[in-house]
Amino acid sequence: MKIAVTGASGIQGMSSMIYLLDQEDVTEVFVSDPYNTDRLAARVDALGDARLTLSDLDCTDEEAAAKAFEGYDVVLNCAMSPGKYIDTTRAALRAGANYLDMTSFGQEPMQFALHDEFEKIGKTAVLDMGTAPGLSNVMAVYCMEQLDQVDEIDFAWGVIDLTPPSEQSRPLNWGYGFEGIMGLMSGPSITCQNGEIVEEEPRARPEKFKYKIGEYTMRGMPHREPRMLLESFPEKGFKHIMYRQAFNDEYEEKYAFLRDLGFNSRDPIDVKGVKVAPFDVLWTLLQNLPEEQKAPSNFVSEGNCIARGIKDGRKLEVRLMVRVDPEGEMHKRYTSKGASGSYRTGISASITACMLGRGEITKKGVYRPEICVPAEPYIRAQAEAGMEVEETIGRLL
User: CA nearest 304: which of 374, 224, 210, 233?
Assistant: First the structure.
């Protein structure tokens, strides 16, 4: 099985490489990044595996990418390329490869338009196959399959830094893409209420939630899981679906402060006669922060999906938890090899890439994860990768 990984120099690209190289049936991993080639080369050297093939390919160059992808079973797109995901998708199609990405920033309609072409050549494209959406959608299907009737689904996510800010020299850290965090902090909280999508204020409906690593306040986000599940399973008649996520309290305050100052905006403003986007200023400042001089961040990601409904005439609650155990062997192994932050997104995508390459995903065409990824085998693969997976079923009175 040969897999191409684009945007491989980033957090998710690094964890993808580690996971894929752990698979005995993966014979070659093509890794590319046109912007951070030195960093990628250093990571390839550190991994020291002859199955890695390094390239400076720009995956948004459709002609060059289609040629480079020829002979590969799967294209795993980890590149951050807003407005260009369709080019990489078409390149995979032209090369006769399966395709998946973790997001495509609104280009899904153009990708779905390629459904018949992927189906015709017997290949599959899986869109939004990261942690959330992605793993979260498959977790929802897993929970739904335990019930005869599903009324409510709640997602309780947490991305928590176990290193207190007081022990760090940097004024701000983050566990995954900072642009994504600012967008999620700024957008409306999306809920499904009685079969209708409702948008509320950013970070709505705060509620304390007991995660494995402690109690934190989760809040609403503009995550698309409510909309995706409602569209994919209209026959279910959902009464409630909501995605909420927790950060450390100190991080929540800092992210919200920057948002309220307007640093999330990409609309240029005039600064002494020069047009600049506030987010670009913020990002430049963050990129120029010195390296951590004291204790490094140790982000742990935990996802919970809680489904409530009816089974055999009884009210039941099914809770599925998937998380990185901060004391587990997997976490130690991945971080020792250079993975950092909320790296499990790359693992979640790589599991799907291997399922595509092995023919375990049988639907052909372009799909969302909840429609085509077999839930039980996928969750089992998460556990086999080293994730802590826990299922709890309780009777509701």
Answer: 210
- Print burial letters for 19-54: b (CB count within 10 Å at least 16), e (below 16): bbbebeebebbbbbbbebeeebeebbeebeeeebeb
Q: What DSSP state is assigned to residue 388? A: E
Give the DSSP per-residue string, 333-374: HHHHTT--SSTHHHHHHHHHHHHHHTT-----EEE-HHHHS-
- Which position has the token pair 């900072």? 178
**pLDDT tens digits for 216-275?**
999 999 999 999 999 999 999 999 999 999 999 999 999 999 999 999 999 999 999 999
What is d(CA 307, CA 310) in angstroms, rounded to the nearest whole number?
A: 10
Q: Which are the contacts of 372, defined by CB distance < 8 A and separation ≥ 6?
A: 124, 126, 361, 363
Q: Which helix (H) or strand (E) holds 67?
A: helix 62-68
What is the pLDDT at residue 88?
98
Comma-separated ranges of CATH 3.30.360.10 domains in the chain:
135-343+385-395
pLDDT band at 390 (very low <50, low <70, confident <90, very high): very high
Q: Which are the contacts of 303, defined by CB distance < 8 A and separation ≥ 6?
A: 131, 132, 135, 136, 139, 155, 156, 157, 158, 321, 322, 323
CB 87 within 8 A of CB 63: no
Among candidate residues 76, 90, 64, the one with its CA nearest the CA of residue 7: 76
- Hunting for tokens 């932050």 — which residue is that? 341
Cα–Cα separations (whole angstroms), residue 239 to 108, 152, 194, 200, 330: 26, 6, 4, 17, 37
User: Domain 2-127 classified CATH 3.40.50.720?
Assistant: yes
Give yes or no for a contact between 329 and 386, defined as CB atoms under 8 angstroms apart.
Answer: yes
- Does residue 75 contact residue 23 with C-beta atoms inside 8 Å? no
Inter-residue contact 55 to 28 (CB < 8 Å)? no
| Mean pLDDT, rounded, for 6-35 | 96
Reported pTM: 0.94
Instruction: Assess whether pLDDT exceeds 80 at residue 393.
Output: yes
C-alpha to C-alpha distance for 333 and 217, rounded to whole angstroms: 30
CB 77 within 8 A of CB 346: no
CATH 3.40.50.720 domain residues, the chain:
2-127
* CATH superfamily for domain 135-343+385-395: Dihydrodipicolinate Reductase; domain 2 (3.30.360.10)
